[in-house]
Write a structure and sequence with these properties.
3-stranded antiparallel sheet; alpha+beta; 28 helices; single chain; 7 strands
């Protein structure tokens, strides 16, 4: 009867229940909240069908599109069977299994103590029925009859542990219903012990609080919190800290910054791009490629433009590959994989180089970076004829069209060769290009139909002012129409009428009423309310449309999705898919500086760009608005903008920027804290005094290090300090003799300063010449472009081999 005795002891104790059902529901809810968004993120990356692409209809891109389609399917399979795909399948399998488990447990509830349900009797049962049910249930679930873990061998058809738990609950239920006090407490408060206030429980599985599992659970917590999470975060931070926001490595951005300048020509861009760290790490110069690389280098070396990094093997290899691609030279099989990687990463790195140029306000370098992007997309050499972008065109077709295109008059001279060819019409093109087949002419017609054609208009003004005065904030709105794209039904060019209506607008509705009568005034007021409601609705739709068309002005920022899918580009020689990207630049003609810039992001027929800048000094100012495409040659458009700036009126001495600054200062003064106390070194409490002392100590150490490294401390400050020390020495000696016993006791018993004395051992051994030239060496450091001392100069050997 030890089991009965044990059950009585447990009943006497506080009744504890670990609710597995509640835990399963909690786990199911958490898994749904985690798996559903992760699944959406994973499925959104799967491209089940190729996007609409007009270049798929061209024979010139047939081979490229077939290869891209094979790579797309391969990438789809790799995603499905990669770690994200396996995690997606496993997580949903686990979620479905948990849902099935909950379905099986649908008749079970999250545990609440109900003695009637435990004894399988109806509420309000008589004492005889209670005793009969208890006797029957206790015999069925008695631990002596259920000692095997195999449910088939027990009388209750359940494991021994589960039978023991049910036996304890049965005893507790019988005690509750047979004792008048506990039964009355249960019927009043739902608790046999009476009212205990509101209780909050957490659904935890029973195995989590089992004493046998304590060590394993503690080890799991330790490994997860102390090992796994810090390791994952550390690895993530180590990798992400190498890159900037645009995906370019910091070392690469530094190399670009050291080599680019205002007047860097486009011909130097391949060498600058080749110095990227991404290339030297991924496609270094290998010995087994030396022969093929030597032959390729010899074919393109005549076109080489000298850069700073031409002595570095890794840089020269990438530069050779870029030159071979621009010259459309065949690449050996051993170098094709490296060429694929270089081209796939080039435009991302060029975007980083473009950001550096724009942040430095370089105009010439910015335009040249975009021009090199065009050449790289179309695989064309510098100053090539733009007609070579057309499908099936080579120099023979260019020469056949040259005579016909040169005789187009003044307007034709102002347009690009492709625009002239498009203006000829299909019939004249077929007469000029007789060697091309009808299918090739169809490809050319389709290309010219989809070839970009843009128109630029602008409006520059100052809000709520007619004249532009010095220091005003000029708002420039540039509208770009891409005529080759379909019409945009949501576009509204002109603003709708915003003025209040006059009585003539409602003359027809008010004609049958007598003027100034009550009915007339009531009808007029009703019409005015209807007009205002319609006006506010139009304004609401207008704001929503503007937010959708220009997400950078909305809540989502630049992360908002464009209105339309990217526009494909005809680039049969480039191995990757390319899309149109447009940049609007505002240039000050006089200073040749970039005033503003913004990318077109919506891929729609009409798009507006808003730029704001301060008006310069009095006079006539000339600006240029450039609209540049990064994928096609001969498309760039430029319009001139002239603005007359008048002198600011005497009564308006302050500019808008100054007024805004004053408002900010007033707001700061209102929120300003009370002035600090001098005895707290400008702080308001003793804690701030300690912080101020620490800050002053750090600043003093930094100032000392700076002066000492430059030799200024030894030359100027040290003699002055020695003189002051000599004058004050009698007083300091007197004070020191008084404080010396206390200092000796403190340094002996509290803190020993000898372990930091090595910091000051070599302070007098200073190489003045070395320190003086240190900053100059760091500033002009271009050692990353130098020859690798551990590798022979392969490209010099190539020249010697010739």
């Amino acid at each position: 009867h030890e089991a009965v005795k044990r059950s009585v002891e447990l009943v006497a104790m506080a009744f504890e229940v670990f609710d597995d059902v509640a835990f399963y529901w909690f786990l199911f809810s958490v898994m749904v909240m985690v798996i559903v968004p992760m699944s959406y993120s994973f499925l959104s990356t799967l491209q089940l069908r190729p996007p609409a692409d007009w270049t798929r209809q061209l024979d010139s891109c047939k081979e490229k599109n077939e290869r891209i389609e094979r790579e797309r399917r391969k990438d789809l399979m790799s995603k499905l069977f990669g770690w994200r795909g396996v995690g997606f399948i496993c997580s949903w399998t686990l979620l479905i299994a948990l849902a099935m488990r909950l379905t099986v447990m649908q008749n079970e509830e999250m545990y609440t103590f109900n003695p009637y349900r435990i004894l399988a009797i109806e509420e309000g049962a008589e004492p005889g029925e209670i005793k009969k049910a208890y006797r029957k249930m206790s015999l069925k679930f008695h631990p002596d009859k259920n000692q095997d873990d195999d449910p088939e061998k027990n009388s209750c058809l359940c494991p021994a542990k589960e039978a023991a738990d049910l036996f304890i609950k049965i005893a507790k239920a019988y005690e509750t219903l047979t004792d008048d006090a506990t039964r009355d407490n249960y019927e009043k408060y739902g608790n046999p012990d009476g009212y205990h206030g509101t209780s909050v429980t957490i659904g935890l599985p029973s195995w989590l609080t089992d004493k046998d599992n304590e060590l394993a659970i503690l080890v799991a917590y330790f490994v997860a919190l102390i090992v796994i999470i810090p390791t994952v975060v550390g690895l993530w931070w180590r990798n992400s800290s190498k890159f900037l926001e645009d995906g370019v490595m910091q070392n690469t951005a530094y190399r670009f910054y050291r080599q680019i300048s205002e007047h860097t020509a486009a011909k130097f861009m391949p060498g600058i791009l080749s110095s990227a760290v991404e290339f030297s790490e991924a496609v270094p110069c290998r010995n087994n490629q030396a022969d093929d690389l030597s032959k390729l280098h010899n074919r393109v070396r005549e076109q080489f433009v000298k850069n700073q990094g031409d002595v570095n093997n890794d840089i020269m290899k990438v530069k050779t590959l870029l030159y071979a691609f621009l010259l459309r030279e065949p690449v050996p099989p051993s170098l094709q994989a490296d060429m694929q990687f270089v081209l796939s990463a080039s435009h991302r790195l060029l975007n980083g180089l473009l950001n550096i140029c724009m942040e430095q306000r370089f105009v010439t370098a910015t335009i040249n970076v975009i021009e090199f992007s065009q050449l790289l997309t179309q695989a064309m050499w510098f100053h090539s004829n733009p007609l070579l972008q057309l499908p099936h065109f080579d120099m023979a077709q260019v020469k056949a069209c040259s005579r016909l295109l040169d005789g187009g008059g003044k307007d034709a001279k102002a347009s690009s060769p492709i625009e002239k060819l498009r203006a000829l019409g299909p019939q004249k093109r077929r007469e000029a290009l007789t060697k091309l087949s009808e299918s090739q002419h169809a490809d050319i017609d389709r290309f010219l139909t989809n070839f970009p054609e843009i128109e630029i208009s602008f409006d520059a003004k100052v809000e709520d002012e007619e004249d532009v005065q010095e220091g005003d904030v000029l708002s420039l709105t540039v509208k770009v129409e891409r005529k080759h794209l379909p019409e945009d039904p949501d576009w509204v060019d002109s603003d709708e009428e915003d003025d209040e209506p006059d009585e003539d607008m409602f003359s027809k509705e008010l004609a049958h009423l007598e003027p100034d009568s009550e009915e007339y005034e009531a009808k007029k007021e009703e019409l005015m309310d209807e007009w205002r409601d319609a006006y506010y609705e139009r304004q609401k739709r207008k704001r929503e449309r503007e937010k959708a068309r220009n997400p950078q002005s909305g809540e989502l920022g630049f992360a908002a999705r464009p209105l339309h899918e990217p526009v494909p580009v005809h680039a049969p020689h480039f191995p990757e898919e390319r899309h149109e990207q447009w940049m609007v630049l505002l240039v000050d003609v006089k200073s040749n500086k970039l005033v503003g810039y913004q990318k077109l992001s919506q891929n729609s027929r009409f798009e507006k760009v808003a730029l704001k800048f301060l008006a310069p000094k009095e006079g006539v100012v000339h600006y240029e608005i450039h609209c540049l495409c990064s994928a096609y040659l001969g498309l760039d458009k430029k319009v001139l903008m002239k603005k007359s700036i008048v002198k600011r009126k005497e009564e308006e001495k302050k500019t808008a920027a100054e007024l805004a600054e004053e408002e900010d200062e007033e707001e700061e003064e209102e929120d300003e804290e009370p002035e600090g106390k001098w005895y707290y070194l400008g702080g308001n409490s003793f804690g701030e005094l300690i912080l101020n002392i620490i800050a002053l100590a750090i600043a003093g150490v930094m100032l000392f290090n700076f002066l000492y490294s430059r030799g200024l401390w030894q030359k100027y400050v040290q003699p002055l300090a020695d003189w002051v020390l000599m004058i004050a020495w009698p007083f300091l000696s007197l004070v020191g003799n008084k404080l010396l016993p206390g200092w000796l006791w403190f340094s002996t018993n509290v803190y020993d300063f000898r372990h930091v004395s090595f910091l000051f051992e070599n302070m007098t051994a200073v190489d003045m010449d070395a320190n003086a030239s240190l900053s100059t060496r760091v500033k002009n450091d271009t050692s990353f472009l130098n020859e690798d001392p551990f590798k022979p100069n392969l490209f010099n050997q190539m020249g010697d081999r010739d």
